[in-house]
User: Fold this.
Amino acid sequence: MKKLLHNHFFALLAWVLILVISVVALPDVNQLTRSHSQINLPKDTQSQIAQTIQQKHWGHHVNNTYQIVAVFNNGDQKMSATDQQNVQKTVDHLQKHKGKYGIKAIMGPNDNAATRKQLISKDQTTQLVQLNVSKKHGTLQKINNQLDAAVKTKGVKTYVTGADILNDDFSGAVQQGIKKTEVISVIFIFVVLLLVFRSPITPLISLLMVGVSFFTSFSIVTNLVDKFNFPFSNFTQVFMVIVLFGIGTDYNILLYNHFKEDLGKGMGKWEATRDAQRKAGRTILYSGSSLLIGFTSLGLAKFSVYQSAVGVAVGVAVLLIALLTLNPFFMAVLGKKMFWPDKRFTGESSSKIWQKMANTSVHHPIVTLILVFAILLPIGLSYKNHLNYNDADEISNTTPSKKGFNVVEDHFSKGTAEPVTVYIKAKHRLDNESNLLLIDRLTNQLKDRKDVKTVTSVTQPAGSKVSQLYVNNQLKQLTGQLGTAQSSLAQLSSGMASQAAMQSASMGAAGASAMAQQQAMMSGMGQMTTGLQQGSDYLTGLQNSAAAKTFYIPKAQLKNPEIQQSMHNYLSKDKKTAQITVILNSNPSGSRATAAVNSLTKVAKYSLKGTKLGNATVVVGGQSSKINDTKTVAGGDFVRTAIIMVVGIGLALIYVTRSLLQPIYILGTLVTAYLASLSVTHLLTRLFLGRPMLTWNTPFFSFIMLIALGVDYSIFLVMRYRNTDNHRYLPTERIVMAASAIGTVVISAAIILSGTFASLIPSGIPTLIEVAMTVIIGLIILVIIIPLVVPSTIHLTYPMRSAMRDNQAKRQSEK
Assistant:
């Protein structure tokens, strides 16, 4: 029993049991990721209010649906009559089998004049079909595959696309990228550890430790997501993989080096295990705790994507427990065999580079700090925070949904695939003349905006005015009728005059009397003609005036079948909510489109102010609105979360360093390295990848990764400094010695972490590539500046240069 306890056998048994449970309990990760891939914004943001209106208060059985677009394209050639017939056959098939495909609503290109204008491109090469598919029908992946097969049409190319489909394909691309990342990471770490320890056994044990930690923690996180809606996103798994394999390997190097050094000093394997646990384990615990605090603080974020990185904290917690409880089993059982066939049992060799850099910095601290920050700060501050919020750019152009999206952009307005929708939700019915007048006026005002291509609404379903519903057209008909009446009266008056003359000649005195009566009647008719002429002149003048350009729908027209169909399409079932669809000229995910959302919102609210709809809820929904809200929420939450994270890590550093100044120096160094690396990454992506802007997720994820992981290396150095005899050496001496002793470990750890992040690059996902580049560049910067900044600040904190010389002279005389 004593031997089993010494060998930590029960720890091994416990972890085997934990691992088995974790693997068995792991949910369907692919489906879990896809179902939690949507960006969740606060409910009080405009786009979410609009979404709520659309889902709960809008439409005729089309709530709780995915909005999907089927694209039919004949390249750059106009569709032939046969092609168009084939497309219509496909649309008819979808209509006939709506239940089979989960379709709740379908709008085809030939449904009416309005759809022909909206869903058939001007060059006649492309036709669109808009579908609302029930979310209960199945997963988006299933729906995509089913519709992709259903829309296949002879003679033309077909695609299934839309914001929901694109987002789902992005989740799939991330999953594929993770598989590549895992394989590359494992191979890279194994090779590096093989070179570091000159043993195949050490890398295998290290990878086993990290693998157990990852599978266990990931099972915990996914079950929390599945059962308790724990924060999760497309990026949670990939960052758990990278962080755990990266820092887990770094910590193992630190632990195994100390264990190996103790064995070289003649310690037994049990004693060496305990000593490594106590000394190296304390450094690992301190470093890991700062990471834990940093990633746990992300749980306080409001933005779902940022909040989802809190899963890494669960991984770090499990990793620390595994490394400090399971590692001792292999160390205590294998002893020196753990490093077979290497027979040199010494610690990590000292770093002459870090020693020289540290020595120089303690002798010239102010000059060193000025040079470091004079070089890095201008680079960092040169970065302009212009970000790309177009998530479609995350997907390869070879993906079918992206191909379809590009076809729509090429042959329609760029905004056609993802239009903006203005919702007007009132407390009273809108299907009456006065409210329709207000909606029509707003429709015309929206059409006048420079970024708008087309606007459709209940009064203008085809995107243009219905002339019969405007006063000038109605007056034209009326003046025409008046003209006809005038002509008839003139003919009647002339006829009566002729008849009167004939009667007068034939009837004598009696005829004269009849003639007098007829003349009186003709006089009255003349007055009527004059009146009609005056009325006609007035109406003609009114018809040509600005006042006649007003919308007016007579009550009788409200029951017109075409008007009823328009109301069905653009008013809610209870007729208390109206929608106005706006197609923009620009990319719906671009900065112009998101800026246009603010403009459209202002125009809509101002137009209805002081009217019967002045108290109505007016919001703008759609992809552009969602991106606009994402900008606002993400930007504000980044600053807030970053402050929380820095404060949390700062408190941890105060405990580790036993200093109030050192955490400020360390965090200042990390933030400077982050700014510089982000700026350099932006330059490289523009020059070599052809992307003028970084993706909107890059700054945040780069920040949390670089700050949380970079602080480890400062802690490694500070802990080595604290473990150096403070009775025999002054602070400046101790920090130089610590830099020399820990430098190689830090450099090795940075290489491993950089290589692990580099494994993200083959994923092909722009965000992952850019985050990898930023972190790698940041780690390189940190490896260079940590031995310059930390020793300099130690010297400035303890200014004992003259005392050090006196102490050195005293020790020399004592020898």
Notes: The chain has 28 helices and ten strands. Residues 471-543 form the longest helix (73 residues). The two ends are 51 Å apart (CA to CA).
